[in-house]
Amino acid sequence: MRMNSARLVYDSTLEHDLISCTALINGYSLERSSSREASELFSQIDRMGLGVDNVILSSMLNICANMASLSSGRQIHARALKSQSDHDVAFGNALIDMYGKSGELEDARRVFSEMQHKDVISWTSMIVNYGKHGHGNVAITLYEKMEDHGVKPNDVTYLSLLFACSHSGLTTKGLKVFNSMVSRQGIHPRAEHYSCVIDLLARGGLLEEAYDLACNMDVKPNKSLWGAMLGACRIHGNTFLGEVSAGYLFGMDPDLSVNYVVLANMYAAAGLWQDAWKTRKLLEQNSTKKFAGYSLV
């Protein structure tokens, strides 16, 4: 709604300059649903011969990342290289993000390596990319290099590291990262950090430890946390803690069907067919949000 109003003001203006165009495109880059409008405006800027700068190119790269449009992102990158102008850190960060979200990890790494100046966002973005692609050990190595270069990691850096460790099975290293965040950096964990640690423990089969942390941490557990617990209990066959986790989830959102699906699958895997049948019946009665791609079988 806010961008619609901004566009009305823009369209009512007789003369447009690069500043007004950049402001509008930057606004579009924050709204995933407005990517087409931003692309059309970018083409309009070309037709008007206004020229472009790093700010507008960075915003367009963010839009390409949101659209998962690798070809458009490459075109903007090539255009920036041809301009032979100096590119700031924000532009390099936008390139890393765009290539990472497009699955082009090597291109993201190359951009990162060629950047003369890097900030905490640069390092964190590459850690995010490695974590999402299952390269937890590489993410840890990059984090160590980051500290060697005197760049102080922030809470997002640690969240990305915990995610990387969790999805690469690096339980011990992940716990070391968490302890470093709290003791060395003095960063107070948010719910998202605790969720990652609990997921880390649960994926490693340390369900009792994960449950103890969920019950004793100093922030209120959320649906993501208990969902991670329930999923891990299904994988490791811990029906008792699975039922406890499901109870918390149903209390938070009784209509979310995926929780019934996971619980029923856990019962079925354990041979508890009566419980699985009861859960199916509850799903039929209460669920209005059946997720595609899940099966009760």
UniProtKB/TrEMBL annotation:
One of its GO terms (molecular function) is RNA binding. It comes from the Eukaryota. InterPro entries: E_motif, PPR_At4g14850-like_plant, PPR_rpt, TPR-like_helical_dom_sf. Keywords: Repeat. The keyword Repeat applies. Pfam families: E_motif (PF20431), PPR (PF01535), PPR_2 (PF13041). PPR repeats lie at residues 88-118, 119-153, 154-189. One of its GO terms (biological process) is RNA modification. NCBIfam families: PPR. This is Pentatricopeptide repeat-containing protein.
